[in-house]
Amino acid sequence: MRTAVALVLVAGLVGTLAACSTPSESAKEDCVASGSVSDSVKVSGKFGAEPEITFEAPLDLKQTQRTVAIKGEGREATTNDIVFVHYSVYNATTGIKIESSTYTDEGQSQFTVNRDTVLVGLAKTLECSQQGSRVVGVIPASEAFGEQGAAELKVGAEDNLLFVLDIESVASGVADGKPVAVEDDTLPTVKLAKDGTPTLTIPDADPPAELKIAVLKQGDGAEVGEGDAVTVHYQGTNWNTDTIFDQSWGKSPTTFKTNEVVTGFGQALVGQKVGSQVLVVIPADLGYGPSGGNEGAGISKTDTIVFVIDILATIPSAAG
C-alpha cells in the first residue's frame, strides 16, 4: 500500500481541501467548459504516469476552467460519486509545485464529487470527468482557499490553483445493489433516507451473543478480499445505549484495510461485493471488548455494536 510519506501528503492535502470548502448553492451541477487559461497548460506523458506540465505563471481567471487532455471512455463522474485519481497540483499564481501522488496503484487518492465537501473548483473539475481521462483544472482563489490561503500548502491569500488529474476509476457514492429481504426479527431494522443515511431501530431485547451479518442490498461488483482497502459509508450504533457513536454519512466516505478495524467489522466485509449494503451486529469480544472498550465513543468493554455499511469500492491488497 502507500508509503508513510505518501499517506501524510495525501491526508494533509485532502483534509485541508475538505475543511476549507464552500457550500454549493445547488445539488445539480453543470459541466465546466474549457477556456483559454486551462487550454494554455501543456501536459504530456502517458495516462497513469506522472505527467510533464508546463505553464506560464501567473494563471489568472475568475471562474474554474477545465480542459480534457486525454479523453477516457469509462463511467462519468456525477455529484456524490467517489473518484479515484492520481494528481499533480501547483500554485498557479507562483508556479510552484505543491505536491503529487505516487502514480502507483497503491497510491491512488480519492475525492467525493461534492461542492460541499471539497473545494468548489476541484469538484467542478471532477464533475463530468470520465474514467480513463486526464483532466486539467485551473481554479481561482474564490473557488479554492480564498483570502485565507493555506499556509501548510504554501498557498497564499488569493492564490489560484492548477490540478492535473488522472481519473483511474469512478464509483457510486451509495450502495446501489438489489434490495434483499431480511427475515431475522432478532436483528435491528433499517430505513434509508433519500441520501442513503440509515435510521436504525434496535429490538427491545438482549443483543445476540454471536456475530450476525445480514446483506440488505446485494451488489455485483468486485469481491472484497482479506487485507483489501475498502471505501465505505458507515454508521455505528451502540446496541446497549441505542446511540450513534460514529458515522460517515453527511461527510465523506472512509477508506481502510479490512485487517485494520475491529475484527467483526472486517469479517462483515470480506467476501462481500461492491455495491452491497451490510448490517452487522458485533459482540464485545469481536468489537472493542479486547481493548477495554472505547471511552471516547461511549462504548464499554461489554457493549455490542451495530454497523450499517455501504461498500462503495475496493482496492485489492498488494499481498493478494
Helix-strand layout with pairing:
Elements: H1 4-19, H2 36-39, E1 42-44, E2 52-54, E3 65-70, E4 82-91, E5 97-100, E6 109-112, H3 120-126, E7 134-139, E8 161-171, E9 178-179, E10 189-192, E11 198-201, E12 212-218, E13 229-238, E14 243-247, E15 254-257, H4 263-269, E16 277-282, E17 305-315
Antiparallel strand pairs: 1-2, 3-7, 4-5, 4-6, 4-8, 7-8, 9-12, 10-11, 12-16, 13-14, 13-15, 13-17, 16-17
The CATH architecture of the largest domain can be given as Roll
The low-confidence parts are: 1-12, 18-28
- The tally of strands reads 17
| Discrete helix count | 4
CATH topology of the largest domain, by name, is Chitinase A, domain 3
Averaged pLDDT: 89
Shape: elongated
Briefly, what CATH class of the largest domain? Alpha Beta
Q: Helical content, roughly?
A: 10-25%
Explain the overall architecture.
It is a single chain. With 320 residues, this protein is mainly β. It folds into two domains: 4-171, Chitinase A, domain 3, CATH 3.10.50; 178-315, Chitinase A, domain 3 (Roll). The chain contains four helices and 17 strands. It has helices spanning 4-19, 36-39, 120-126, 263-269; strands at residues 42-44, 52-54, 65-70, 82-91, 97-100, 109-112, 134-139, 161-171, 178-179, 189-192, 198-201, 212-218, 229-238, 243-247, 254-257, 277-282, 305-315. Strands 9, 12, 13, 14, 15, 16 and 17 form a seven-stranded antiparallel sheet that branches.
What features would you highlight for this structure?
mainly beta; Chitinase A, domain 3; disordered N terminus; 11% helix; six-stranded antiparallel sheet; 320 residues
